Amino acid sequence: MTFRTLAAASAFALIAVQAAPAAAALKTAVFAGGCFWSAEHDIAHTAGVAKVVVGYSGGTRRNPTYGDHAGHLESIRVTYDPAKISYPQLVSAFFHHIDPTDADGQICDKGPSYRTAVFTASAQEQAQAEAVKAKVAKALGQPVATKVLPAGTFWPAEAYHQDYAEKNPVSYNAYRIGCGRDARLKAVWQGR
Question: Which of 182, 175, 154, 187 is nearest to 73 (CA)?
Fold first, then answer.
């Protein structure tokens, strides 16, 4: 083995060892924020968020699909770095990207699968999510309809739904503008 080959192999091994702990330190959180395209689009730009996958959660049906996900909420699974954003900060960011007072869905998307929720994986997450929810209710001066629920299975949605806003900016922006999402969120959160 030449010196260059040995040096390259050593450098690669060092990089791999350093990358492994960082990847292991990432955590996930699941939220239902109405239309999963918008929930994904909005939270993906939050500092500390590494990846967002859209899908279905909260129901009992196995292998739900877009055409058949009764009982499930359109959801997002957020992979984040807790060294950059804490779980309560992530929950707060999620709340600021939805209308948490809407019990029937989100903006123009109404119905059971568009209701909002924070899915918690532990008693600690539940307590933290409930504390953030209470702060949001106080800031808005009204009850918050978003539920805090125990996490269950998260089922990823079909490939064409992943990164939808990024892959289809014209149709996504037409939907977002037509829905009035930004105007509604501004009305809910302006000055808070």
Answer: 154
